[in-house]
């Protein structure tokens, strides 16, 4: 049996530990001030950027293939891009919410890639069943400067074909009406040159008091840099 004196001593030690932890946290020396680097993140990405961007390595598996048409109405099969890194995302060509922010990040990421940009393909899959024409993809690409990316593809197809892609990539899509923003997943998939899924990340946006989405220049540039660094790492592994 534990005696009263020992119990009192243990309680005292526990209380001291709690106070010490609280003091360390207030002084910036405790766990709240220590970043734990996510496992599997490319070495070129700093822990600070990894904490901010929160990319995740995923079990290596072949990315589901698809055959759609791009903004120029040209057929495109995902498997035809083997040999290149692929940054794959899902976009609404009539979006006024987070899609324009992601678009700007992709444009800046392409610039950050420099000489490696030709080895990275950027692909967006349409999530708007009310606007499926290649002309819609072309208009959005022009409006948001995405045509400056030499390897940019905004692909679309029939609702049935698109729905299969959404399902295969676990992307939820809610399209209430032709004139409303489509609610959809914004996960970015990073595929290696062999066509295998290697990393995912989910872009973010801030909102003003009136509900307008935005992202300050600093965080936006950080996201672009992170996208470029993950793509660069995958390209160098090839």
Task: Give an overview in words.
The protein is an alpha+beta fold. It has two domains: 4-33; 47-237, Glutaredoxin, CATH 3.40.30. The chain contains six helices and twelve strands. β9 (188-191) and β10 form a beta hairpin. α3 (99-113) crosses α6 (217-237). The chain is globular and about 45 Å long.
CATH topology of the largest domain: Glutaredoxin
Provide mean pLDDT, rounded.
84
The CATH superfamily of the largest domain is identified as Glutaredoxin
Structural category is alpha+beta
**Structural domain count:** 2
Gap from first CA to last CA: 64 Å
Describe the largest sheet: 6 strands, mixed
Q: Which value, in Å, is the CA radius of gyration?
A: 23 Å
What proportion strand?
15-25%
Top-tier CATH class of the largest domain? Alpha Beta
| Element order: H for helix, E for strand | HHEEEEHEHEHEEEEEEH
| Low-confidence parts | 1-34
The largest sheet has its strands arranged as 1-10-9-4-5-6
* Helix proportion range: 25-40%
How many DSSP E strands? 12
Shape descriptor reads globular
CATH architecture of the largest domain: 3-Layer(aba) Sandwich
Query: Counting H and I runs of at least 4 residues, what is the number of helices?
Result: 6
């Amino acid at each position: 049996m534990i005696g009263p004196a020992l119990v009192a001593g243990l309680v005292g030690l526990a209380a001291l530990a709690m106070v010490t932890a609280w003091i360390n946290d207030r002084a910036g020396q405790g766990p709240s001030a220590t970043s734990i680097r996510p496992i599997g993140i490319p070495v070129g990405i700093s822990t600070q950027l990894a904490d901010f961007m929160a990319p995740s390595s995923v079990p290596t598996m072949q990315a589901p293939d698809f055959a759609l048409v791009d903004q120029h109405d040209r057929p495109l099969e995902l498997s035809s891009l083997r040999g290149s890194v692929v940054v794959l995302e899902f976009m609404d060509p009539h979006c006024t919410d987070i899609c324009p922010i992601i678009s700007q990040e992709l444009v800046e990421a392409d610039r950050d890639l420099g000489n490696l940009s030709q080895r990275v393909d950027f692909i967006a899959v349409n999530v708007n069943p009310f606007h499926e024409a290649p002309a819609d993809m072309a208009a959005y690409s022009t409006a948001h400067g995405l045509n400056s990316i030499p390897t940019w593809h905004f692909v679309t197809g029939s609702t049935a074909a698109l729905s299969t892609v959404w399902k295969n990539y676990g992307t939820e899509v809610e399209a209430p009406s032709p004139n409303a923003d489509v609610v959809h997943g914004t996960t970015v998939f990073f595929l290696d040159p062999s066509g295998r899924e290697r990393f995912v990340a989910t872009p973010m946006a801030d909102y003003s008091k009136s509900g307008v989405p935005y992202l300050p220049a600093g965080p936006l540039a950080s996201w672009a840099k992170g996208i470029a660094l993950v793509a660069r790492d995958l390209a160098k592994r090839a």
